[in-house]
Amino acid sequence: MQIETPYLMFLGDVPDRLAAKTAYGIVDWRPEWCIGQIRLPGCAADLGIPDLTLDEALAKGCRTMVIGVANAGGVLPEHWVAEIVAALEAGFDVASGLHARLGAVPAIAEAAARRGRALHDVRHTDETFATGKGTKRPGRRLLAVGTDCSVGKKYTVLALEKGMRARGMDADFRATGQTGVFISGRGVAIDAVVADFISGAVEWIAPAADPKHWDLIEGQGSLYHPSFAGVSLGLLHGAQADAFVVCHEPSRTTMRGVQHPLPSIRQVIDLTIQLGSLTNPGIRPTGIAVNTQALEEDTARSLLDKLGAEYGLPATDPVRFGVDGLVDRLIAEFPETAP
User: Fold this and answer.
1) Is 102 helix (H, G, I), strand (E, B) or coil?
2) Number of H helices, E strands in the chain
3) Residues 89-115, mean pLDDT to the nearest whole number
4) Torsions phi, psi of 138, nearest 5?
5) CATH code for 7-121?
6) Are 247 and 145 in contact (CB under 8 A)?
7) Average pLDDT for 7-27
């Protein structure tokens, strides 16, 4: 899948920022690709980039309109179809991270065929995966796990990739969600893989590598989330993780979209070790990543100090305060991967 850049980001009429997390993630990590946004009336998200019409975006060189939203079930709202068809008619390719296939909508498929435009369903792949085997393979792997979904797992491993490479380490981000695939240009949206093959798909994403190499694997969901725990477990087993970082958002009391209480960081650490030891008995926690966006800086730093002391692990907000402590801990735990 080769998606043409730069992008025009389509936000539809999403009700909040979190519903447009795909678009925000692309803008945060590939700002040079994101020329403008197009929004429908009532949209409550704003990427902070110019609002453009289709003609204006074409004039600025945009090649692909990216549907940068995530919703429950990954459905394509019917009232968005006309906007997508208009983009195809204007000469754009269209890429989507939704579960719903663009080509399954007759009007979209017909417009794409008539205009010779590409439809990219990032959440779907033509790759055939084997079942996971759990056989030990060389190289090191780190997995981001969470107390909930949408707590910063992707941002944590992207920040780690940047920080580790800056210090001369051999590290690659491995995308397991639609936003990560848009950012990295490769990967597999694990939540669209048939359940029996999830762990095998992760083994394919992060194959055998040089012993000094780190694959930094984007986590999904939470082992404690009743909706997504199955995906999280398959990821954990396929990753054969040597290390994991627990990602947390401190303002929540229940998990997103359900009434179940948020688990503690300790519960997540213990369960991750218990279940992850099936494919890697040496699995261990190497840090805590906290999304402190809702906290004042003094409050955030105080919380991180408290968590670091309580768990004996480096605790940081990777975006706000950097990842030096997390990288230091990885080098201390796995000195053979040092530059």
Assistant:
1) helix
2) 12, 11
3) 95
4) -70, 165
5) 3.40.50.720
6) yes
7) 93
The segment(s) of the chain belonging to CATH 3.40.50.720 are 7-121
Distance separating alpha carbons of residues 261 and 246, to the nearest angstrom: 17
Residues facing residue 285 across a β-bridge: 244
Instruction: Give per-residue burial for 86-120: e unless 16+ CB within 10 Å, then b.
Output: ebbebebbbbbbbbbbbeebeebeebbeeeebbbb
CATH homologous superfamily for the domain 140-337: P-loop containing nucleotide triphosphate hydrolases (3.40.50.300)
Contact 199, 276 (CB under 8 A): no
Name the DSSP letter for residue 51: B
What is the DSSP track for 233-281?
Answer: HHHHHHHT-SEEEEEE-TT-SB-TTS-SBPPPHHHHHHHHHHHHTTT-T
**pLDDT at position 186 over 70:** yes
User: Residue 258: pLDDT above 70?
Assistant: yes
**Cα–Cα distances in Å, from 165 out to 31, 47, 106, 305, 325?**
20, 28, 45, 26, 15
- Contacts for 173 with CB less than 8 Å, ≥ 6 apart: 157, 158, 161, 180, 183, 184, 216, 218
As annotated, the residues of the chain forming the CATH 3.40.50.300 domain(s) are: 140-337
- Cα 29 → chain centroid: 11
**CB 81: neighbour CB atoms within 10 A?**
16
- As given in the structure block, the two tokens for residue 202 are 């992760």
Asked if 319 and 194 touch (Cβ cutoff 8 Å), the reply is no
Name residues whose C-beta falls within 8 Å of residue 68's C-beta, 6 or more positions apart in sequence.
9, 10, 11, 20, 22, 23, 24, 26, 97
Distance, C-alpha 273 to centroid of its chain: 22
Whether the CA torsion 152, 287, 224, 183 is positive or negative: it is positive
Distance CA 300, CA 67 (A): 33
